[in-house]
Each structure stands twice: as C-alpha cells, then as structure tokens.
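> tool_call: predict_assembly(chains=two)
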Amino acid sequence: MDFKSSDTIPGPRAEDHLPHTAQAAVKIVIVGGFGVGKTTMVGSVSEIRPLTTEETMTQAGIGVDDNYGSESKTATTVAMDFGRISITDQLVLYLFGTPGQERFWFLWNGLFEGALGAVVLVDTRRLEVSFDVMGRLEERGVPFVVAVNSFPDAPRYPLEDLRTALDLPEAIPIIECDVRRRASSRDVLMTLMRFLHSLALMGKLA
Amino acid sequence: MTPPQRQRRHPLPDPAPQPAKQGDGQNPERLYTITGEDGSRVPLDLVTLIVANADPRPSATPEQAALLRLCSAPLSVAELSAYLNLPFSVVTVLLTELLTAELVRARAPIVRQALPDRSILEAVMHGLQKL
C-alpha cells in the first residue's frame, strides 16, 4: 500500500475537531445526477471544508460505460463528497453527496438505510436523470424531498408542473433552491426535516 | 415545452433488499463490525464516531499510528477515510483491528428506525435554524 508517513498526514484543522462530548451522528444523503450541485450544496452549509471519501469498485461492478481503451484496468474509484454540521455538543449531522446510480450505493455500508432521509437534487434541463433514483428511494422506503436547483439557463416550470412530471405524491415537498447560497441550502434541509417530523408524528417513518 | 414524465414506484415487499451475492467481490462479507448497545453486532457506518483510548504505542504500524493520532478527538469513519486518503473499506479493516485491541472506541450512529425518535429530529431542526 502506498501509505504516507504518519507525520505527513494532514489531519483536521484545530477548529475542525469535534468536541469530546460528541456522542452520536446522523446523516442525510443528497443524491442527484452529475453536475447537479450536490457538492456545492454540501459546501455551502458545511462547517468544515468538504471532504471526500473514496471506495474502490471492482471490474464486476463497472458498467458498460467505462473502461474503453483500458483493458488492464480492473478497478475504478468512486468518490463521495461530504460535509458536517454540529447540531449540539453531543450530536453531529453529516451530509453526503452521492452519485445517482444505485450500483454505487452498496460501496458504503448502509448509506441510505441508516440515513434520516434524502434530498433529491434535480436540474430541469435533465429532469429524467433523477427518475431512477427517486424510484429506488421509493422502493427502499427512504423518505425524501425534491429540491430544484435553479440554474440561470435552465427552463423554468411551475412547481406543480414539475410535481406532475415527477409523479410526486402531494405529501412530498418540492422546493426551488440556489444551492450556492447557504440560507437556501439550509432551507432545503429544513424542508426535509419538517417532512420527516410530520411523518414521525403520523407514525409513518419506517 | 413539456418535461419528461416519471411514474412513481412503491416500496418493495422486502424493505431492505440486499445486493445479490454473486461471488464476484461486489459484496464481501463484512468483517468490520462493532457491538451495539443491545449486544448485537453492527457494521461500522460512515458516521460511526471513533475515539482513541490512548496515544499510539511505538509498536503501532504507521497506519495505526496515523489513525490513533487523528481520532484523539472524535472523528467519523468518513473523515478518517478522507484525511488518510484511504478507501472506506480499508479504513474499516484498520479500525476493526484497533477496536479488537481496544485501542479505540466506537460511538454508533443514530439511524432511521421503525420507532422514530422525534427528539432527534427536533434537535436537528433547532441546530439547522441556528445556521
């Protein structure tokens, strides 16, 4: 293994250390197609510089869309950016931005199974990219909200038209956002939390 | 302009389908587990918080020493993977050794449950409002 000397490992900055009182963590997953703004959203609300965790995917897990002209390659690396928000001295929230393809999800234990819920980030120029991931979340019973990232050159649709196009049940929130803005990204997370809370009140959170 | 049209899906009968074991290395047996509060064994999660019990001993391998230094204060497995620039699965194997040797402790994450803990959801909402 190519491992750097422990003296050269860059650790967290002093201000990025969690307090010793930190007892437990929860996570929210932000999922969407390539370039839809997942990493931007993580970065806009995270208290730490967004970090990247990687996993290696073996040949059998690689789709047909990879490896042209590199016959000898047997593994590919899948990266996932994440950030952190300290909720209290005891509780920490982590945000993971993950690729939309389900074939990546098993690389990290319980990525969705253990998450409080998910944000599906969509781009109206490529709405269909999010169809499969929404279906997968529905099949797995993972509660989610839909956030429409406002790109300046993207077509604008009324939210109710988007709700229809996404076949989204009335109970599931859909909101517009600008993930470059901290307050907007926070509002998306608050929308998810209020939705989860309403499900919990109804005893529906499975 | 008409957007494309999706059709919603419904929960599968088995709420948490496991990937098929195909013997192709996609889904190796999980060696890295920690003991939950009820004595059950649970796999290390991305957001399991790890804390070192002591400073690294001179006999520690470079990887172990680096891990122990990093988690002198609590850090998630995901953060350890990021700072060490090692794949998540490699870090979980290293951590399993350290957990077995009782050189680190693990604080299990709070996961979505059948019986939801509303106080956790409310705490997260209060925390986000302060952002």
